[in-house]
């Protein structure tokens, strides 16, 4: 595939001077489109390099098979895919878990239960880079690749009391569905005897705090999984082809699920049809996603085979609701919102057309002046009539008085 479909983006310089690179794969790399965006991140822990290698394989496979494989074409033409093979190149070079400062990067993000450090500038450079990245790109979903087990892990990762138990996030059903896509597509992950179906709630497995996947969901509107893809953290190089084959369809199907399932659409204003960067919520699920700022496109992942009430809203506009029955395929639903009519706007509607080009304040002032002019003219007319009537009365009295004098 030609390089018009992929782009390497230089990212940050780490503590030991390594440069992190992100591979962007799309039919329009570098351009914003009304499509869902997905990111893969590997090598979060320096001593877990399998994800790093598999993500490089994934990028090569999609590029090599774009013109030959329908799944590769689907991803390139309908998803904005970003691949960061190594989040922790310093740890990789040192063959240890932490970064150059020996900090575990998957414990360095702001946590919902136990905030350790609210100053982003005091966090590790790799952590800050991820947080800034998600401030620039509105990712729909993502996954980070780890080693040491074989399971697809989903939020929440921790609990308020630090006890090990199942702690579900608002989109628990959707996350279970996403994790099952990876597990069922894998060679043997779904056959796990330790994790039923090859998936697990993070807090049910073992609670962690400062993890990346919970932060993605809470602060960035991004549905992230933590994928443990190899029991052996550092296998021999000759095992990599087998690990690639075991994980290949899982990696591809998880990305493709962004356009194969869920509800997607755009939000417009009925007043001129301009895009509205509003919000989408599902009744009964305490979680809101935001539409894109440029195209006002939204991509709401949901567990299929369910009936949902979808609500679109935007400040200054009337919310709209629709019911959908989501099957195994994705649905497209656009929303057209009507502006809310205020009292000032009602006044503008009844004003004379000569005021249409003026501001609301000018219309109101003009309306008051016109009202005062009418009252003033009415008073003047009344006074004129009264004056004429008095003059006429005086004239008649004068004539009668003169007539009586002449008779005498």
* End-to-end C-alpha gap: 129 Å
Which segments are poorly predicted (pLDDT under 50) over 5 or more consecutive residues? 352-367
| Major sheet attributes | 8 strands, mixed
Output the radius of gyration.
34 Å
Q: Provide a count of the helices.
A: 10
Which strands sit side by side, in order, in the main sheet? 1-2-4-3-5-8-6-7
H/E element order: EEEHHEHHEEHEHHEHEEEEEEEEHH
Instruction: Provide mean pLDDT, rounded.
Output: 89
* Proportion of residues in helical segments: 25-40%
Shape call: elongated
**Number of beta-strand segments:** 16
* Percentage of residues in strands: 15-25%
How would you describe the overall organization of this protein?
The chain is built from ten helices and 16 strands. Mean pLDDT is 89; it is low at 352-367. Helix 2 crosses helix 8 (240-260) and helix 5 packs across helix 8 (240-260). Helix 5 links the parallel strand 6 and strand 7 (199-201). The strands form three sheets. Strands 1-2-4-3-5-8-6-7 form an eight-stranded mixed beta sheet, sandwiched between helices. Strands 9, 12, 15 and 16 form a four-stranded mixed beta sheet that branches. A four-stranded antiparallel beta sheet has the order 11-10-13-14, with no helix packed on it. The protein has helices at residues 50-65, 70-78, 89-94, 125-136, 172-185, 202-205, 212-220, 240-260, 343-350, 360-407; strands at residues 6-13, 19-25, 37-41, 80-84, 141-146, 149-154, 199-201, 223-230, 263-269, 279-282, 288-290, 297-300, 306-313, 320-326, 331-332, 335-337. It has 408 residues and is α/β, with parallel strands linked by helices. It starts with 5 loop residues before the first strand and ends with a helix. The longest helix has 48 residues, at 360-407.
């Amino acid at each position: 595939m030609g390089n018009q479909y992929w782009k390497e983006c230089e990212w940050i310089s780490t503590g030991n001077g390594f440069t992190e690179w992100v591979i962007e794969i799309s039919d329009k790399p570098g351009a914003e489109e009304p499509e869902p965006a997905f990111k893969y991140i590997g090598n979060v822990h320096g001593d877990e390099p399998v994800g790093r290698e598999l993500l490089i394989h994934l990028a090569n496979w999609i590029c090599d098979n774009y013109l030959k494989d329908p799944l590769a074409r689907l991803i390139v033409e309908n998803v904005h895919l970003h691949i960061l093979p190594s989040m922790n190149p310093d740890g990789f070079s040192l063959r240890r878990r932490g970064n150059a400062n020996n900090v575990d990067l998957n414990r360095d993000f702001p946590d919902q239960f136990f905030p350790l450090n609210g100053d982003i500038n005091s966090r590790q450079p790799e952590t800050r880079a991820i947080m800034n990245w998600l401030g620039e790109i509105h990712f729909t979903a993502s996954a980070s690749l780890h080693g040491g087990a074989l399971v697809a892990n989903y939020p929440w990762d921790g609990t308020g009391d630090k006890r090990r138990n199942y702690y579900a996030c608002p989109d628990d059903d959707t996350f279970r569905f996403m994790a099952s896509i990876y597990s069922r597509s894998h060679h043997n992950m779904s056959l796990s005897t330790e994790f039923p179906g090859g998936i697990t709630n993070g807090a049910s497995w073992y609670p962690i705090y400062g993890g990346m996947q919970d932060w993605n969901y809470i602060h960035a509107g991004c549905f992230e999984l933590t994928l443990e893809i190899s029991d052996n953290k550092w296998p021999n190089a000759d095992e990599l082809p087998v690990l690639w084959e075991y994980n290949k369809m899982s990696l591809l199907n998880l990305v493709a699920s962004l356009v194969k399932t869920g509800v997607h659409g755009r939000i417009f204003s009925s007043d001129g049809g301009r895009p509205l960067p509003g919000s989408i919520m599902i009744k009964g699920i305490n979680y809101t996603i935001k539409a894109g700022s440029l195209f006002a496109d939204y991509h709401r992942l949901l567990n299929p085979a369910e009936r949902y009430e979808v609500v679109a809203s935007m400040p200054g506009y009337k919310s709209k609701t629709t019911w959908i029955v989501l099957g195994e395929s994705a649905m497209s639903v656009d929303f057209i919102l009507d502006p809310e009519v205020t009292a000032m706007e009602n006044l503008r509607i009844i004003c004379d057309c000569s005021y249409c080009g003026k501001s609301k304040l000018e219309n109101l002032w003009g309306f008051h002046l016109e009202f005062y002019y009418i009252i003033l003219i009415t008073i003047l007319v009344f006074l004129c009539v009264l004056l004429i009537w008095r003059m006429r009365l005086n004239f008649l009295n004068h004539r009668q008085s003169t007539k009586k004098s002449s008779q005498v």
